[in-house]
Amino acid sequence: MYLALQQFINGATLGAVYGLIAIGYTMVYGIIGMINFAHGEVFMISAFIAISGFTLMTALGVTSVPLTLVVVLFLTILFTSAYGWAVERVAYRPLRGASRLAPLISAIGVSIFLQNFVQLSQGARVKALAPVITGGIEVAGNGESAVYLSYVQILIVATTFLLMGGFTWLITRTAFGRQQRACEQDRTMTGFLGINVARTISLTFMLGAGLAAISGTMVTLYYGVVDFSIGFLVGVKAFTAAVLGGIGSLPGAMLGGLLIGLIESFWGSYFSAEYKDVATFAILILVLVVRPCGLLGRPEVEKV
User: Fold this and answer.
1) What 8-state DSSP symbol labels residue 90?
2) Matching InterPro entries, A to Z (predicted)?
3) Quick check: is 302 in a domain?
4) CATH code at position 197
5) What phi and psi values does residue 35 have, to the nearest 5 degrees?
6) Alpha-carbon span 108 to 22, nearest angstrom
7) Distance between terminal CA atoms of the chain?
């Protein structure tokens, strides 16, 4: 009983991270109809920026945890959004009129470039961070069987759901959200109506990168270690979450992330941890067999 509750907390925390990154995939797919396969590396870069920010604040003698978090988050979002903008300008904008395969290959090339760039500039060794937020609460049990909820886990889950609500409001209730949905339906007609399509797409990439930046900061706080290879696996898991929940659906991306986090947590606890990825992708296949558009996705209807 206590073990299951603890694994649920751990899985929900991991799923929240996957969900935030999956929203970035979903936003980009919704507006250009393609997957940004460099998004995982953008997340990886944000983790390195975050760990550099925490190290800098420590070197400056800043002891206030809230101030440190605010400053590091601001710097991480700022620089990571710039990377997101650069990916769109380099990998997608020049190929906007090309076949769908060309931007895909370009994004994979950018992904490989970013991974090797970080490896050469930061080194191949794992970079560690001393705990910034410590402590937590016991929600059930006592002693060795106690169910523990750390303050970092509370911060990750609360931040994720606040951002989920904020981005849902942004997409459904604001002028920028209407521009995004217009670009999704017909970019040519949207341009005729006076909307700057190129700027809307760039801002969408930057918003997705900003979400990856927050995820990278949370992962750095939670695990305390980063390396140049984390982007690939996390990116694949987040992409899987987006597909599982329904690519193009923000709530679906979050639901898919939570499901994958819970599957990994429970499978690693009760079965062999070596096969948790197999279990995740097997469940994805089963869901897509029953619902090809994902759990919350809607089938595309092409009007002729």
Assistant:
1) I
2) ABC_transp_permease, BCAA_transport_permease
3) no
4) 1.10.3470
5) -90, 130
6) 17
7) 55
CA torsion through residues 9, 290, 167, 209, sign: positive
Q: Work out the burial of residue 304: count CB atoms within 10 Å of its CB; fewer than 13 is exposed, 13-18 middle, 19 or more buried.
A: exposed
Structure-block tokens of residue 216: 């990278």
In a domain, 274, yes or no: yes
Residue pLDDT, tens place only, 91-112: 888 887 777 788 888 988 999 9
The residue whose two tokens read 């961070």 is 129
Structure tokens at 137: 């609460």
pLDDT tens column, 223-255: 999 999 899 888 888 888 988 888 878 888 899
Label residue 265 exposed, middle or buried (CB < 10 Å: 0-12, 13-18, 19+). Answer: buried
Side chain identity at residue 134, one-letter code: T
Asked if 22 and 257 touch (Cβ cutoff 8 Å), the reply is yes
- The number of beta carbons lying within 10 Å of the beta carbon of residue 251 is 16
How many CB atoms are located within 10 Å of the residue 139 CB? Answer: 13
Convert the pLDDT of each residue in 25-79 to its tens digit: 888 887 777 788 899 999 999 999 999 999 999 999 988 999 999 999 999 999 9
Q: Is residue 304 assigned to a domain?
A: no
Only one residue has tokens 């994805």, namely 284
Q: For residues 248 and 301, is the Cβ–Cβ distance under 8 A?
A: no
- What is the distance, to the nearest Å, from the Cα of residue 196 to the centroid of all Cα atoms in its chain? 26
Residues 77, 33: Cα–Cα separation, whole Å: 24
Residue 300 lies in a domain: no
Domain limits for position 214? 2-290
**Global pTM?**
0.90
Q: Give the three-state DSSP class for 275.
A: helix
Domain count, the chain: 1
